Amino acid sequence: MANSLLPPEERNLTPDQVEALDKRREWGHTLLVIACQFAVIATVLLLWVGQDLTYSPGWVHPMAYYFAIAVTLVVVLGLTGLILRSGTPRID
Predict the structure, then answer these.
(1) How far apart are CA 73 and CA 51, in angstroms?
(2) Distance CA 57, CA 49 (A)
(3) Of the residues 49, 55, 61, 70, which has the maximum number of CB atoms within 10 A of its CB?
């Protein structure tokens, strides 16, 4: 009998397909971990962004640029990780 906890499309996979699915989900998990690490970095950078935007002259705002890059990485890696991890949750 098929495992009723699995989604219907995953119940009759071959061993090669299961291995590919596991690798995809592992990559998704890795990308989510990296996104969370960049979220912590972006939170720390947020402490300096206001001061940088207030006191840096002209268009020279390195902390604001680093913050924008970190937030962009969080969004891109997080969404990609969620897409790759779609399906049943990982049990460790």
Answers:
(1) 22
(2) 14
(3) 70
Quick one: 55 exposed, middle or buried, by C-beta within 10 A (0-12, 13-18, 19+)? exposed
What DSSP line would sit under 27-68, residue for residue? HHHHHHHHHHHHHHHHHHHHHHHHHHHHHS-TT--HHHHHHH
- pLDDT of 58 reads 84
Q: pLDDT tens-digit profile of 36-81?
A: 999 999 999 999 998 888 898 888 888 999 999 999 999 999 999 9
- State whether residue 20 is helix, strand or coil: helix
C-alpha distances out from residue 56 to 47, 61, 69, 83, Å: 15, 6, 18, 39
The one-letter amino acid code at 64 reads A
The C-alpha atoms of residue 71 and residue 78 are separated, in whole angstroms, by 10
Task: Return the residue matching tokens 């402490």.
Answer: 47
| pTM for this predicted structure | 0.80
